[in-house]
Design brief:
The chain has helices at residues 18-29, 50-54, 67-71, 87-99, 119-132, 149-154, 177-182, 189-197, 206-216, 301-317; strands spanning 9-14, 33-39, 63-64, 78-81, 104-106, 135-138, 163-171, 223-232, 249-260, 263-273, 280-286, 291-296, 322-324. By secondary structure, it is of the alpha/beta class. It folds into 2 domains: 9-140 and 303-328, 3-Layer(aba) Sandwich (Rossmann fold); 149-298, Dihydrodipicolinate Reductase, domain 2, CATH 3.30.360. A 7-stranded parallel sheet has the order 3-2-1-4-5-6-13, sandwiched between helices. A 6-stranded mixed sheet has the order 8-9-10-7-11-12. Helix 1 crosses helix 10 (301-317) and helix 4 packs parallel to helix 5 (119-132). The radius of gyration is 20 Å and the shape is globular. Pfam families: DAP_DH_C.
Length: 333
């Protein structure tokens, strides 16, 4: 896939939460992009210099509330979007960007493979992107890399794949407090399942990863199942962002399974818990030859997510118009 231009690609960051700020920092370090603007709906951030928000060096731009104002008259800009995990929550933002003719790279987990749960919204985005002549992509570490794209790349060295298992274990103590609370650390079992019932607990995007993994390995899965259960603290954990008492929830164990005519073909298992043992990523592909890949300690989620967005920006400017998945990006830079 050729680069669209020889110079750095101008980018605008939308959403200046923790991940959005990481994206802004990563953009400043990349020779392939130029950070020209920042957008956030928080009135406490609007009008402040971006460097002040980041707490360090930054481009001489101020945070604005309008994407149109952030882009100005600059041509060829890409939106790096980080405002939400649920497609319904961010749909209008994505459509607004496409109306302005901006390619979009988003952290929205459900955008990584929206055809599974939201075919009508996926079709709407496809039409809008085609009309604008630009690409829109959902990516990150998971979904977007460890449990799907990396598996698909490894599968290029295999014959027909019989089964794939991907496990990811994250010690939440190494991540921000918001993530520790997001996986239920400190809750009782009843509190945990009450949030599960409200669809407010767990990692968003695991089923999307399973669908991408299956597609990338040439499997035709016709059904997907997902399960989430709590991981309990076996002793008091005092070195996280806040104390977690023995017997309380320390995090989640979540699985997504892809089935083909009732037979399991793909299994993804994700543990995110305060004090989780043996953090790391493992990919096991049953084929000829069989492949086993391990990343000791695992891919660092927050910083790597920011890098995946920044590195994708030049690629989407050169991509065909439409709603893409990470499987359509080049494997290298």
């Amino acid at each position: 896939m050729p680069r669209a231009s020889a110079g750095p690609v101008p980018v605008v960051v939308m959403g200046l939460g923790f991940i959005g700020q990481e994206i802004a920092r990563a953009a400043q370090l990349s020779p392939e992009v130029e950070l020209i603007g920042a957008v956030d709906a928080n009135p406490q951030l609007v009008g402040r210099p971006l460097a002040e928000v980041l707490g360090g060096p930054g481009p001489k731009v101020k945070v604005v509330s309008s994407l149109e104002a952030a882009v100005g008259r600059r041509k060829g800009a890409v939106l790096l979007h980080a405002t939400g995990s649920r497609l319904e929550q961010v749909m209008e933002q994505l459509l607004d960007a496409l109306k302005l003719g901006l390619p979009v790279v988003s952290t929205c987990e459900e955008l990584a493979f929206p055809f599974l749960k939201y075919p009508e919204m996926a079709e709407k985005l496809e039409r809008a992107a085609q009309a604008a002549g630009v690409a829109v992509l959902g990516t990150g570490v998971n979904p977007g890399f460890v449990m799907d794209r990396l598996v698909a790349v490894a599968g290029q060295a295999c014959g027909p794949v019989r089964h794939a298992t991907v496990t990811r274990v994250v010690d939440a103590r190494t991540r921000r407090e918001a993530l520790q609370r997001k996986v239920g650390a400190g809750l009782s079992e009843d509190e945990f399942f009450a949030l599960v019932d409200k669809d407010q607990m767990g990692h968003v995007g695991l089923v999307e990863s399973a669908a991408l993994c299956a597609l990338g390995l040439g499997m035709d899965c016709d059904d997907f199942e997902e399960e989430i259960v709590p991981v309990f603290a076996e002793e008091d954990i005092l070195d996280g962002a806040f104390p977690v008492k023995k017997g309380r929830v320390a995090g989640i164990f979540q699985s997504a399974v892809g089935l083909e005519e009732g037979q399991e073909r793909v299994r993804l298992e994700l543990t995110i818990a305060v004090g989780a043992d043996n953090p790391g990523d493992r990919i096991e592909i049953e084929s000829d030859p069989k492949l086993v890949l391990e990343i000791r300690g695992g891919v660092p989620g927050d910083r790597a997510t920011a890098n995946t967005l920044v590195n994708a920006a030049p690629r989407v400017t050169a991509a065909e118009a439409g709603l893409l998945t990470v499987l359509e990006l080049p494997a290298g830079r």
